[in-house]
Amino acid sequence: MHPQRIVITGVGLTCPLGNDLPTFRQALLEGKSGVVQFSVRNMGEQAAGVCEFERTKYQNRKEVRVGTRAGGIGIFCAHEALQNAGLSLKELNPSRVGVYMGITEHGNVETETEVCQLVDHYDEDVKYWTHHHNPRTVANNPAGEITVNLGLTGPHYTIGAACAAGNAGIIQGVQMLRLGECDHALAGGVSESIRAFGIFAGFKSQGALASHLDPTKASRPFDQDRNGIVVSEGGCIYVMERLEDAMARDANIIAEIVGYRINSDGTDYVLPNPERQEECIRQALDNAHLNPEDVDLLSTHATSTPQGDEQECKAVRNVFGDGSSTLVNNTKSFIGHSMGAAGAIELAGNLPSFQDGIAHATINLDNLDPSCHLPGLVVNQPKEKDGGVNIILNNSFGMLGINSVLLLKKYTG
Question: What is the helix (H) or strand (E) element at residue 299, kind and residue range?
């Protein structure tokens, strides 16, 4: 079997370091953190990654009020991705565009808000409960809001894959293009997690919520003093096409997706299983017909939790060995953990490496935990890869033991 080649031709994003890829990339290379103090209901000030994008750029004020934060993020990213791909809605067949959004959770924000308003202001009288609640909280909402805003009539759904969802959305897009279910896929992930105090409270009760006097230093994967996750919001959507279609319209091809794998630990609700993560990486490499030594840059999932980082590093060492020349970095050290959007955003930050051959660093790494030693770890300063970057591997893992790995190749024809 020789599956059709699938390429990325557009990227649209919003994250705590900017609202387009060049701005995001520059901040990564300069070592800037996008984490700030953010007021969380019932919990006070917390370190968080906050997006600042123009909500009314593609929606009017009524649409913003009726919709959700996640849907608004998705709408912004989808429009930006299509523009970046050189596509206009007028030239697309709306029934042949598929929308596949990865999410960690959805509806928490809207339900928490309604409950708090009912208790605090309306003496729990449900006649004040918004009639927008149901469409806001259905699981397909972020993808559905995109189709309503853009007038798309092809397939849409969300992929609930915990914090592996950004990769999972992209993988779904690849599969649907190869099945012929669409001609263009808008695929990636979105998250409004910082708007739900339950997310913060849940991590705090697990002992997994980051704390630091300086919020820019709260997210510190692999560091001996790491103490938990910085919750972040954001989104990243890719325009994906079959190679022959992209070539026919003379599109700018950003990268080719050459392999992937999703598997399950099958062992625990929260604790990762390094053996299954290792297996996922190896199977993705097999799917791409690549060897570990072919990988030039590995983007880690590491969330800045003590056990999570250690287990991923164990899996990576088992695959790549102690003498590996593969460069390794982490993006959550800059922006925190954007949950369902994480895999997609983190991949985007590394895609320019295909052109400049530079891996951005992992910041806030002042005291490396020996259990997190990786031979190619890029620490605090960007590093240029000898021979350039031709293959990128993107790790993204999630609760209930879902693991995802993507492999991308520099497009050379």
Answer: strand 297-299
Question: Helix 69-84 vs helix 141-150: angle between axes, to the nearest 10 degrees?
Answer: 50
Burial class (CB in 10 A: 0-12, 13-18, 19+), 145: buried
**What tokens appear for 141 in the block?**
């909402």
**Spatial distance between the Cα atoms of 301 and 371, rounded to a whole number of angstroms:** 16
Looking at the domain assignment, is residue 235 inside a domain? Answer: yes
The span from the CA of 244 to the CA of 225, in Å, is: 49
Q: Which of 177, 245, 171 is nearest to 3 (CA)?
A: 177
For 291, residues 6+ apart whose C-beta sits below 8 A from its C-beta are 285
Proportion of the chain above pLDDT 90, given as a percent: 98
Q: Which tens digit of pLDDT belongs to each residue from 67-110?
A: 999 999 999 999 999 999 999 999 999 999 999 999 999 999 99
Q: Do 63 and 160 reside in the same domain of the chain?
A: yes
248, 283, 317 — which closes off a domain?
248
Structure confidence at residue 1 as a pLDDT band (50, 70, 90)? low
The residues pairing with 374 across neighbouring beta strands, listed in sequence order, are none
Q: Global pTM?
A: 0.97
